Amino acid sequence: MERTKVIVGLGSCGIAAGAGKVYEKIKALQIAENLDFELKKTSCIGMCYREPLVEVIDSTGSYLYGGINEDKAIEVIDKHVTHHEPIREYVVKTDIFDTEDNDFIDNQIKIALRNCGFIDPEEISEYEKRGGYNAIRKIAENNISRLDVIQTMLGSGLRGRGGGGFPTGLKWKFANNNKSTDKYIICNADEGDPGAFMDRSLLEGDPHSVLEGMIIGAYAIEANHGVIYCRAEYPLAIKRLNIAIDQARGKGYLGTNLFGIHGFDFDLYIKEGAGAFVCGEETALIASVEGERGMPRKRPPFPAESGLWGKPTNINNVETFANVPWIIINGAEAYAKYGTNKSKGTKVFALAGKVKRSGLVEVPMGISIRDVIFKLGGGIQGDKKFKAVQLGGPSGGCIPEHLSDTQVDYDSVNATGAIMGSGGMVVMDETTCMVDIARFFLDFTQKESCGKCTFCRIGTRRMLEVLNRIIDGKGKEGDIEVLEELAYQIKDNSLCGLGQTAPNPVLTTLKYFRNEYEAHIRDKKCPAKACKQLLTYEVIPDKCTGCMICAMKCPVKAIDGERKKVHFIHQEICTKCGECYSRCKFEAIMVS
Amino acid sequence: MRIQRLQAVHQADRDSDAVNLDVLDPLIRKYKGKPGSIIPILQGTQEMLGFIPKEAFEKISTETGLKLSDMYGVATFYAQFRLKPVGKYVIKVCHGTACHVQNAHVITEAISETLDVKDGETTTDRLFTLESVACLGCCSLAPVMMIGGNTYGKLTGKEAVNIIKNIRIQSVENVKN
Prior knowledge:
Strand order of the largest sheet of chain B: 2-1-3-4
CATH class of the largest domain in chain A: Alpha Beta
Largest interface: A-B, 53 and 39 residues
Helix content of chain A: 40-55%
CATH topology of the largest domain in chain B: Glutaredoxin
Number of strands of chain A: 18
Order of helices and strands of chain B: HHHHHEHHEEEH
Structural class of chain A: alpha/beta
Strand order of the largest sheet of chain A: 2-1-3-4-5
Radius of gyration of chain A: 27 Å
Strand content of chain A: 15-25%
Largest sheet of chain B: 4 strands, mixed
Number of domains of chain B: 2
CATH class of the largest domain in chain B: Alpha Beta
CATH superfamily of the largest domain in chain B: Glutaredoxin
Number of strands of chain B: 4
Shape of chain A: globular
CATH architecture of the largest domain in chain A: 3-Layer(aba) Sandwich
Distance between the termini of chain A: 65 Å
Oligomer: heterodimer
């Protein structure tokens, strides 16, 4: 009989939830009681909402336990591992019996994430056991030509997963066309979109798949140098990438005459980004690798002709690279089988916000937004009303509830005014104010504008001022028109994607939630009851029992009242902190 | 544009007197003359000193030939670089989209009020620096803050303040012992 395996999910999210302590506890227990089982680590399993996760694999099958703290870990080891009795109520996913979370995993198709949560990312042997580095071997052993590799990528229909959606095969073809003795291939891991963590999870969970994708890309375009541009805010991803690179080098997968292909020399290094959203843009990224301020420049020349250090350069996103080995092994048709006419394959999304199950999901292109949120996401927290979903982060937009049958593919999402983006999907309910969301993103892009183009630098600031005014209850007639005028000017007059898309969050919310803007401006009301300055807190006399709790808890002493008599809130003192509302046990505080 | 960073230098002028700059020598040797080295040199400096004092800029410039203006341009462009010292504990409050819709601003406001510092500032006793950061990547635990290596999730303003008060009490006790 095989030894029982106990696997702890140690991605950033799991560690934040306490998985590190759980791992240490189990390890200590194993040593103290001399227990016979194999303790292993893996990375993000995707079910962030159930972290920390511990998987037990015994002779009967796999049981994934969710919400495990140190005490529950002891229980699981004692009952399941030692006494072979699985604890059903803690199990979130298993093939043995039904759990309420089964459909979270069952509705996914994992290609880019094929190894995440299954392997120890710090062990190259585990990646190889699951077919790792066989794609590049297949190319070497069958003498598949560079153009044939590119043809396979074209046939698969894979498009840039960083959000641009440019066909990867075509990009490689351009880079291949350019003959130069020095060429660069860069992996863009500068995931800056606030609310997106796909690339981080991939790098933490399966770094070798990205390396192998880069090696295949390097072969296809004849690149001899590689750079992974990773944000410094992802220390764990960088650590595991470094381990992976050392292991690959040790095995001879990086270096000279790779995999027996004569003249195929390739090595790579990690460049840590220093925190600038604009560096996700190709030319800004190149400037940053060169050690400069990360400011975009005019194209042409495109990086494929003149990129890093003036050499031909090809840049792809983390998720794009992770798909490459799978496509080479399984063929273009197998990949193109998933998805829609123009958007093939699968896409990874970071599902977050007011959704019951947040986490990392990989779904076939063409699935409806409704299915992602309700079938995978399990619906809205507290069963509140679903209002909108934000796709594409600061460059994207909000898709309202009535368009939730929209298919998730590049073209359908673009038609709504949002963009597919890199995969951040933030769900909002009736308590989220859409004006505030627009302001949130504009505040972000305004700070992150590099300052090169006047319209982006100053225009976003002026837009932000108007939005702040509206939220503070000082909006006036004509503000919406000013926002629209500025938005189109910024879009038309900015050099790079950041400026060209920065107004999108405002434009989409104006398109679908114009009434909320109007309510803020004309009625000085926030329909979602989220904008503090527009709220009033009042005591409902019939419900107030005079318990004095609110008066005692009010931090600014704005509430008057004697015991057992109806209390009163002085509006001129009230700071609208909401303390009274949350404290009142009798629902006697009204917010309007 | 991160305009607030420009003002930070004057503060640094006053604060950076007691820093030993010899620790920078190996770093300078490693990167001297290499193209594209400004960012790694500055990152290395910050890692050793916690921030980049004016004197460090001058020393690096003199010894490597990098232009002060180029280095300053890079240091003020990227969010990672600090031109003034930070507190013993850096409180990173996540303001990613998921945390924002789960009311992350309440956390920052509560801490800001308790410590009497604005976003990006350090308390006068140099114990805490309050920072807003983009996504920490724990979206399912929103709203989240990170202090040192510890992440605290599903916070309310009051819980956040209590955590900070506890850290302060512990650190006072540590000093006594």
